Amino acid sequence: MSPTGNRADWADDEDFDDPSVLPPQEVITNKDGTKTVISYRYNDDNKKVKVTRRIKTTVVREHVNPQVAERRKWEKFGLEKGHAAGPSFDTTSVGENIIFRPSVNWKANAKEAEKEGGEKGSMKDQLKDKKVKCRICSGEHFTARCPFKDTMAPVEEGTAAAPGVEAEEDAGGLGAGKSSYVPPHMRKGGAGGGEKMGGRFEKDDLATLRVTNVSELAEENELRDLFERFGRVTRVFLARDRETQRAKGFAFISYADRGDAALACEKVDGFGYRHLILRVEFAKRTT
Amino acid sequence: MRPILLSGHERSLTQIKFNSDGDLLFSVSKDKIVCAWWSANGERLGTYNGHQGAVWTVDVSPNTILLATGSADNTVRLWNVKTGECVKVWEFSTAVKRVSFSPDGNRLLAVTEKRMGFNGTIAVLDISYGENLSAQAAEPTLTIVCEESKATVAGWSFLSKYIIAGHEDGSVSQYDPKSGDQLENVQIHEFDSQITDIQFAPDRLSFITASKDKSAKLLSSRNLAILKTYISDTPLNTASVTPKKEFVILGGGQAAMDVTTTSARQGKFEARFYHKVFEDECGRVRGHFGPLNTIDVHPAGTAYASGGEDGYVRVHHFDKSYFDFMYEVEREQARK
Known about the structure:
The complex is a heterodimer of chains A (287) and B (336). Chain A has 287 residues and is α+β, with helices and mostly antiparallel strands. Helices cover 33% and strands 18% of the residues of chain A. Chain A: One of its GO terms (biological process) is formation of cytoplasmic translation initiation complex.
């Protein structure tokens, strides 16, 4: 403000031509009692930045004892002698926020929290609420006891057959070597066979969809019709209750091609089928 | 609430004290330095230098003109609060463990240690506030000798009517400050569990004791009757009664030399809040890394400060939830 006010010397006009000079700070008083301060500065990239700040001034009036007010004017002494007013950083700092809420039954709450904190409960207590979960059908039993173990078996048997084939190959490979034992990955074609096996296993898994929230009244051929429009379906498995023969609410659909499976997954997920909305996702590996 | 950490001391705190208006906080520690702080923002006003040994105790006169400190260098020093000058030194034969101004500020008591063949004593000194602050009585006007068990802490009851002292053996006694006679002696804490602190309620009609037997007791000044008992799970070093709200704050913790086992919640270095009437624990404030040696509450009840073995003073200004908290019966009472 002041430079423009008392600029009498014409030589100072030079400043106006200098583009690097910042415009003076502006202060605008708003109607609601706040002030808007507009100032300019250069940032780190040497660019001109306009800073607009709205400032609300609140006057907090506090009544203190005159003795206390008088004491506030005291000079510092001792080790603090000559130090500027205000807390110094080497003696005063602000701690982290503490949430302190007194409560009536604090003791009981604290005890509970301590228990939840763990360590104390035995393994048995920890597992008390845990449920057994089948890896095949997510039912409440061990995987080995799964009623669908047999029905699901074809998929696993298919993969299980591969090692048998490999074993025959290996038998030949063994004879060729002079030493008694050759580790599988060193054997001729062994690595390839293993890879093939893994590949086949994975391919099968990757093209299988897990469909959940299937209606109890669903039929396997209905599902086949539904999914076949996206590509060739190699297998449809609808889990059924052994006694009632009703569908258990989930199914597996295997495609010949993963691309088709992905498409089906995208399209059918959220599709309404027999009063329920299907949920489709890629089947997770059972192992 | 955000505590203000005051780190002006290099060794463990021994006592902290607000002045009567609560704007200043004085702290003493084993590092021979006495500090004065503004309680509102934690700014250090200054230090009072001159002690040659650990400073055990501090008290400020009710008019905030004089500051008294007692130290292991066997002296009680009187300081000009404003300038930091030492105006008077009294020599004793043993270390001074507690000093306390009477409610009117005209007398000062000093509790001396029992050591080197000397019995523990409580000495009463007259204090004058003339133009020249260094004009003070040279000798104590009264010396009470504690022959049975040494006094560890002491203070003045309402109207300076009694001197009340806590002893090493867990008993509390009442003395007549004029004659020095023992009027009463009551074993209130377990035998041989030292009383570590005595602090009076604002009206000085009752006081609270903290003891190594893991309990604190609220007693009547008049007849030493036990009014309330607060049970905790750790040896206590300090206890304080809050004005404005009906709480007591207890501080303590397992001393490092006594630790034999470690648990998940090590040390219990927390300030414990108990309801004064219901004897019920309402909450804890953690933060210190060592046992709490001393707690003092702002005379207006808006803040409290704690000093720990870790060398820090933490000043806590209570926030709204503290003032809003009420028991159901209290709330009903407030509604009427």
